[in-house]
Design goal:
The chain is of the alpha/beta class and about 290 residues long. The chain contains 8 helices and 11 strands. The longest helix is centred in the last third of the chain and has 23 residues.
Length: about 290
């Protein structure tokens, strides 16, 4: 069960103070949108830990005892908080109750709809291990396999399963910017999915990472077959094989899953830094 689901379930029985990072400047533990739900007896989620979170817990429980309107508090992450980040965070303190659950659920779902999309082809041992990792990350996952009834239950909240036969047909329906991971039960299927991705890149050049599981010898065979189908050396460089950041050894599914997920995050971070302008200063209503 995710922290969001736990929060909404607990909120049905107990009031809470929802603490959200509204804005930030400089080096900070968490970016805007991070949240922590503070109840009288527990807290769910995190805004980054450390003394900032401790002070926010104290403030939230104080406001929970005497709830009032929404407040925004500015925290400078310097010597006064015992943190050396040097940045500045604005925290929004919002009293909520069970009556707010539908609105909050809609808000969380709206925020998640903007998360990057990963298309994972293959529901084998590595695919299942990778979904368990991706299920804890701010990503949406479209999990595709040509076999029916291979997907486990329950699934992480951010994963949607799709049965496609032939499996490569799902490539054309992927939204622009999708990160593609290919690890089906069959080398023949892997090859067809790679071919479909390269054809799409030739036509639209709108996919992100195209990561293929396998050895260098597998990729050498794939390259030869793809070249026979008319793909150039330049086009083939768009495929990352073996997928996963270098330097992590081991062939256990969980180890491979960590390496692959890390590479996805690397690619997304590089894309985000290239696309986003520097953030400006923010204002606040209360300072600490």
């Amino acid at each position: 069960m995710t922290a969001t689901e736990q929060f909404l379930m607990h909120l049905a029985r107990h009031d809470a103070m929802l603490v959200t990072v509204q804005a930030s400047r400089g080096s900070v533990p968490r970016d805007a949108g991070a949240w922590m739900a503070v109840f009288s007896d527990t807290a769910l989620g995190t805004i980054g830990g450390g003394h900032l979170e401790w002070q926010a817990l104290i403030e939230a429980r104080k406001q929970l005892t005497h709830p009032s309107a929404v407040q925004v508090v500015r925290y400078a992450l310097g010597p006064s908080l015992g943190q050396c980040c040097g940045g500045e965070v604005q925290l929004r303190f919002e009293p909520v109750s069970g009556a707010d659950a539908p609105r909050l659920r809609q808000r969380f779902e709206s925020e998640q709809s903007h998360w990057p999309l990963v298309a994972l082809f293959g529901a084998g041992h590595v695919g299942k291990a990778l979904v368990r990792v991706l299920g804890h990350l701010p990503l949406r996952v479209r999990w595709v396999d040509s076999r029916d009834e291979v997907f486990p239950d329950p699934l992480p909240h951010n994963v949607v399963c799709e049965h496609a036969d032939p499996v490569q047909a799902a490539v054309n329906d992927l939204p622009s910017g999708t990160q593609v991971l290919i690890m089906s039960f069959s080398h023949a299927e892997d090859l067809e999915v790679v071919r479909a991705c390269l054809q799409r890149q030739r036509a639209h050049a709108d996919l992100g990472l195209i990561g293929l599981i396998g050895s260098r010898s597998k990729w050498a065979t794939f390259k030869h077959r793809l070249q026979e189908r008319g793909f150039s050396e330049a086009e083939l460089t768009q495929v990352t094989c073996p997928v996963g950041i270098q330097g992590i050894g081991g062939k256990q599914p969980a180890v491979i899953a960590v390496a692959v997920a890390a590479q996805v995050l690397q690619v997304l971070a590089a894309t985000h830094s290239d696309a986003q302008p520097p953030s400006g200063n923010a204002t606040s209503t209360k300072e600490t």
